[in-house]
Amino acid sequence: MIAEKSSKTIDVQINKDVLVVGAGKAGLTAAAQIAAQGYKAVVIGNKTACACGAGCSKEMQDAGLVEIQDGTSLVDIAGVAGDFRVTLGKGEETCEVTFGAVVVAPQYTGVPLNSAYGLALNDKVISQTQLEALLADDAGKEKLVNGSGSTVAFLSGFGQEGDPTATGRVLASALEIQKLENCRSYIYAGNVKVGAKGMERLFTQGRNEGVVCFKPKTMPTIEQDKENVKIVITDPVVRADVELEPDYVVVEEGVVVGPDNLGIAQTLGIDADVDGFLPSNNVHRFPVKSNREGIYVAQNDVDAANVALQVKALIGDGVRTLTEDIAVVDDTKCVICLTCYRCCPHGAIFWQDGAAVISPAACQGCGICASECPMDAIQLGEFTDADLKSGVKEAVASAADATPSIVAFCCKNSALEAGEAAAQFGHEMPAGFRMVKVPCAGKVDVDFIMNALVEGADGVMVAACHEGNCKAERGNIYAGWRVEEIRQRLENMGLNKDRVVFTTIASNMAREFACKVNEFAEKL
Amino acid sequence: MNSKTGKVMVIGGGIAGLTAAWELSRQNINVELVEKSCFLGGHSIGFTCKATDTCKQCGACSVEEMLANVVNEPLINVHLRTEVCGLEKKDGFSVSLAKSAVEEVAPQGVLKGFSHHNSPLYVVADGAADAPEGAVSIDTLGSEGAVDVDAVVVATGYTPFDPNLKGTYGYDKWDNVITGLDLENIIRENGSLVRPSDGEKPKRIAFIQCVGSRDERLGNLWCSEVCCPYAMRMAGVAKNADPEAEISMFYIDIQNSGKEFPVFYEKIKEEIRFVRTIPVDIYPLEGDSLELRHMAEDEGAPSSEQFDLVVLSVGIMPGMDTAKISEILNIPVNQDGFLDAVPGDSGVFVAGTAGGPGSIAATIAGAGNVALATMNYLGGSK
Ligand SMILES: Cc1cc2nc3c(=O)[nH]c(=O)nc-3n(C[C@H](O)[C@H](O)[C@H](O)COP(=O)(O)OP(=O)(O)OC[C@H]3O[C@@H](n4cnc5c(N)ncnc54)[C@H](O)[C@@H]3O)c2cc1C
Ligand code: SF4
Ligand code: SF4
Ligand code: SF4
Ligand code: SF4
User: Which ranges carry the 4Fe-4S ferredoxin-type domain (chain A) (predicted)?
Assistant: First the structure.
């Protein structure tokens, strides 16, 4: 194993203000929580209602701790955590302001999913929001009752899966309708989303108060003739079609990513998930971190509190201690090919005076850049190429008496943990198995693997995190490619390509890791 | 950073307590972490990874990471095998600690931690014959006496539903009827899925959802939120390991698993069969198989099917010490039997599943929220 070297640290002064992008409830709550920790929060975006209960009190605004810049938008961002230089725009004008941290509070919009049901909206086919507006006052309720009473059908969970918030709205409205004279609610649901506090009770209450809930397996058959709608389902128990011609049809609303959302993500250089929601779906970032240091995402009140915790841990008293040599570019070797800039998952690389520079305030030390740099211009302080090479040499030498000898490059976040656990729990492993610690599998380049073979290892394993679980987002993918490249090369040279394998493992899976290693040894 | 004085007691060392303790210590606050059992980590430290070709975001490995954070943090003082037996409100709180009862935490023999970050890794109770290297006698564990703190975070967690309360499923009688928790531990410990009776790989697997939850007869009027996600992820793991496996899931409604759920759900619907009915009972057949009887959803008539392994998706019930904790700390209990929220100015906070069902991810977020509220309380009370 390679000893960790002590690194050089410096203290830097950082900016203590925080920019909050998005003036909805989550954004304002985050601002209030950040201000409560003594930092100034500037909120930009289009303010929704301020009666949101976010708690950014008048005192906070008076004290200048929360500043709401209505109608201001994010234009551009440069710099790194502690020193983000943000270009803000209002109308034609722009200005540059410095912030220590940035919080994104994305605003989502609801759209009625009537077309999923083949329905056109009109006076009798309405969205959930429109129904809530009607239920809000007596005139609306009167309209719903329509003299002699109405039947109201809710369609939910066929246009999209839905969630407890949507189900809660449907149930609350359905219960309201049951209270109106001669009115009845029917719910057609896919899966009733009761997975949130109080929801099962609400659902039971609905049933007890006469709300009828059908759960057909597929979307009901729906015919619309202007304001007349017929809904048909097949009931499995009575084995007959059940038909309803409701007076009102209420269609569910889908949550969609606001038009600005992806633009903001792109400007900030943070990843979204497959549905376009921020941040990316990676457990190491839960609940509020993004792939960039100092940029956080808040969707609700709980997130807002977590953002304030992160901001406090980052900014503290305004002095941050940084490790200078996490990753350093040798400017005499760099040819500014920008490979490193493109592959850094954490937005830590810039260029200056004819060479790439890595910011210690943003770099996470994954080493992907070092492995990708065609000029070998980048070295990590704790994991220099020379260190790794001598580590491999030692590993092979110490396993020389055993057959097979295996060098496993193990990501410190996953495989190394699993391997150490396997050893401590006494799971059986081949005698010639040696682990070489790497900061991320993305640090393992073709040369290291070749080097291990040249040193005399019978087998080489590159062990990474599962896809989607890499702290550096794509380090495992780079490692997989490189192993594939080596296997090709071995094959072309007429050698056994199976001497080099790539595998993925989670940190908590000691036994599974031992099984994988034993299987590999067996094959060798 | 200025060194803020203040000391917080965190009761319960599951992911909720670990997260709260860690977040507080990151803000330079001293923490006394009290854990009743002999190991930190709670239920989820024994969970298995549910990745197939990709990570399925089950959160189990983040518990491992948080445990490593906590055991390496000098500001957190850990009391294993310790319970709170009294609390006196003075300037702050004076909390009395006592060793927890051996028969409750260590029935017999050798106990093993699930993570290599557990220290000690092995604990031996009285009369254990062959203790592994590094094992510690249970008599050496446990703290007693009073500790003064400024605030208290309660994170005593949940109790999984006792499957024996649903007697017709025969959990105590048939080897191959197991709970979701058993399944987590089996895969974690074996590295792959095997059935208990003979260690063979099961070919036909059934998951029964809502065991103990959403059950009016038991008076359990809540959804446990985690069992649909864990059962689907587990089904995915089983299918990935053996594409020939036939997996059925008996359910009422499928709940969401978090981010990217629609994509995950579409894919899993192609891999396993979803049957909207809750089975009635289970009987043993020749060769360790099981017969499961249910109402066929399409015909509305009784039907039965054969399985090699049946997994009961047990839900999240109030923690077993809820009454005791409620009394000592003066925390109200809600109608479902979980601890209720406490007013923020009392200096007592509730985190994690002690307050109601939630996933690891939700628990981590909630515990962060509690850590901030605790800090704000300390800041205000100083
Ligand atoms: C079968 C099953 C599978 C699951 N799978 C997943 C999954 O894949 N992903 C996911 O996100 N969630 C899953 N969950 C949910 C997950 O278990 C919880 O979210 C998580 O464990 C909650 O953590 P906690 O700290 O609140 O409680 P616990 O894990 O219950 O921890 C509580 C801790 O407090 C201690 N304690 C209790 N009483 C006292 C006392 N009086 N004094 C001191 N200490 C005390 C306990 O010993 C324990 O260590 C699953 C749940 C079940 C039942
Ligand atoms: S990859 Fe290497 S050569 Fe290219 S810009 Fe980065 S440091 Fe310079
Ligand atoms: S080591 Fe990783 S995080 Fe740091 S600059 Fe290189 S690629 Fe970016
Ligand atoms: S599936 Fe769970 S344990 Fe496995 S890597 Fe993903 S989050 Fe971690
Ligand atoms: S999560 Fe699924 S299995 Fe668990 S109680 Fe809710 S509906 Fe039932």
Answer: 325-353, 354-383
